[in-house]
Backbone:
């Protein structure tokens, strides 16, 4: 992790990567900064053909936007981040203007050098630097949350600065693709990057939860075709995680252990390996919904073993390619990696993937109508057992 409490030296943002660290599976981490002071981290494949030196970011960039403001919905207790700077983000640019591709003379993109995997701070983040991250390039947030009790306090019109971190994870320098199109070696590098960033972001002051995810497909709302995902580091416990913690309190601390055993013995299991299992959940909401979880209790990616990471690369690719084989062409999805919060639930909330897709037929999508959108009361279109049968067949193909 790059230092967060002090500004870069006068020319630190103009130098190629100088902080080098060897990670697991032969992955090499090279950390540097972009021209406006944002962190950029290269993760090199084992045995990469790339040179050790990386290009300097030559751009002259505007200052970073002020940290957004979040407002509390008094009816639900949810915090809503108002990040107006996101309105200016790129929308389906042509390949020669891909902002996630390596820079060329005609494309002043976000990444100066050719890379295997690259992670950088989002230029227009929903959650931005807080007090501890203040530098000349990133001013201090005006009113960060004090603690979880502060966030839960009652009152109308309550606001706080949206402190946190939003990072972009580029899976490949190619212009199009997704995690499922990667090689096993590259998939393993991305998993190592997820683990490294989870550990680093969990240490930032005020961070309560770290969330890696991938949005895939224009039907989901993706605005860049480049193979990439994101990582959000939140200053609060998300609504979904708060419900999950309540379920653990209601059902017992061994809830995830019992879920894995229950699904392993039932008709919805779609893929089993030594360390991981994938299944359509008993009460699936979406036409395509599958969960992938480790057999043992693991709180987050940083806590996984080298053996679990090695196996996950192949298992996850098999699962994603099976999802694409359901209809013979790419399936839009959200791949959400739920991790235990930083400070609570570490012994009870288990790392797991929730992959969902609105695709209910080859040419039909499920839209969230009144019951789902307004009331949160879901109506499933496909029986989970039937969905599991189809997905098993697709994975076998």
Residues:
């Amino acid at each position: 992790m790059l230092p967060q409490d002090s500004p870069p030296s006068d020319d630190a943002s103009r130098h190629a990567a100088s902080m080098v660290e060897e990670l697991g599976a032969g992955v090499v981490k090279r950390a540097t900064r972009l021209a406006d002071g944002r962190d950029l981290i290269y993760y090199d494949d084992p045995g990469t053909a790339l040179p050790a030196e990386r290009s300097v970011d030559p751009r002259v960039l505007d200052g970073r936007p002020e940290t957004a403001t979040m407002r509390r919905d008094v009816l639900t207790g949810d915090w809503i981040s108002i990040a107006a700077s996101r309105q200016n983000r790129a929308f389906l640019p042509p390949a020669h203007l891909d902002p996630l591709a390596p820079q060329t003379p005609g494309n002043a993109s976000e990444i100066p050098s050719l890379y295997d995997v690259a992670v950088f701070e989002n230029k227009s983040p929903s959650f931005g630097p807080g007090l501890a991250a203040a530098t000349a390039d990133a001013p201090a947030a005006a009113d960060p949350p004090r603690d979880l009790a502060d966030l839960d306090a009652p009152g109308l019109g309550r606001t706080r600065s949206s402190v946190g971190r939003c990072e972009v994870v580029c899976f490949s320098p190619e212009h199009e693709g997704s995690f499922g199109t990667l090689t096993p070696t590259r998939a393993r590098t991305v998993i190592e990057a997820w683990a490294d960033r989870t550990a680093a972001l969990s240490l930032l002051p005020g961070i309560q939860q770290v969330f890696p995810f991938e949005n895939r497909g224009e039907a989901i709302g993706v605005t860049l075709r480049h193979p990439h995902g994101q990582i959000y580091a939140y200053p609060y416990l998300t609504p979904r995680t708060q419900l999950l913690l309540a379920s653990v309190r209601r059902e017992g601390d061994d809830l995830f252990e019992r879920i894995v055993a229950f699904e392993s013995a039932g008709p919805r299991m779609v893929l089993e390996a030594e360390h991981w299992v994938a299944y359509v959940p008993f009460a699936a909401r979406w036409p395509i919904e599958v969960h992938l979880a480790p057999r043992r209790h693991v709180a987050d990616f940083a806590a996984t073993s080298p053996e679990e990471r090695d196996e996950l690369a192949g298992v996850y690719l098999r699962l994603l390619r099976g999802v694409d084989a359901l209809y013979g062409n790419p399936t839009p999805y959200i791949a959400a990696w739920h991790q235990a919060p930083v400070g609570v639930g570490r012994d009870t909330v288990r790392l797991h993937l929730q992959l969902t897709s609105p695709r209910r037929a080859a040419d039909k999508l499920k839209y969230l109508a009144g019951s789902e959108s307004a009331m949160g009361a879901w109506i499933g279109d496909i029986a989970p057992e039937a969905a599991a049968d189809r997905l098993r067949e697709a994975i076998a193909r």
